[in-house]
Specification:
- The chain starts with a strand and ends with a helix.
- It has one domain: 2-Layer Sandwich (Alpha-Beta Plaits).
- The strands form 2 sheets. It has a 4-stranded antiparallel sheet, covered by helices on one side. Strands 3-4 form a two-stranded antiparallel ribbon.
- It is of the alpha+beta class.
Length: about 140
């Protein structure tokens, strides 16, 4: 089972401001080393502010590019950690240990979501095409 732990952005992360000291980086490094040692870490990184990104809006059969920044900071993601574990409970245990993303005294929030696996979908030709793509990555 794969889960994504997403760090919700805040005004500070959207401004591209880095922590004043290495405390947050040290806590994150330690946590991710523990994930790696346990063999559950798949990927992890921070995201640049939305001012450096864009969205593609789909409406009426057309695509429109919308450049950042985006105003609803609470709906943005500042970073993520992707893990593969045996159960939802194990994912919950790792999530509980996630360091405060902006420091112990700053407000912050993470969201955890399970990823779909190919076995979650009814067999079909398009699903098999995706399954083959995933097999090619291994």
């Amino acid at each position: 089972m794969r889960f994504m732990i997403m760090v919700r952005a805040n005004a500070t992360s959207e401004a591209g401001v880095m922590p004043d000291d290495d405390t947050v980086f040290a806590a994150m490094a330690t946590y991710h080393e523990e994930l790696a040692k346990a063999g559950v870490l798949l990927d992890a990184t921070g995201l640049q502010p939305s001012s450096k990104g864009w969205r593609i809006r789909y409406s009426g059969g057309k695509r429109t590019v919308v450049d950042g920044p985006f105003s609803e900071t609470k709906e943005l993601i500042a970073g993520y950690t992707l893990i593969q574990v045996r159960s939802r409970e194990e994912a919950m245990e790792w999530a509980r240990r996630f360091p405060a993303p902006f420091g112990e005294t700053a407000d912050g929030e993470i969201e955890v979501r399970q990823l779909y696996e190919m076995d979650d979908f009814e067999p079909s030709e398009p699903v098999e095409r995706f399954r083959e793509l995933q097999a090619g990555k291994r």
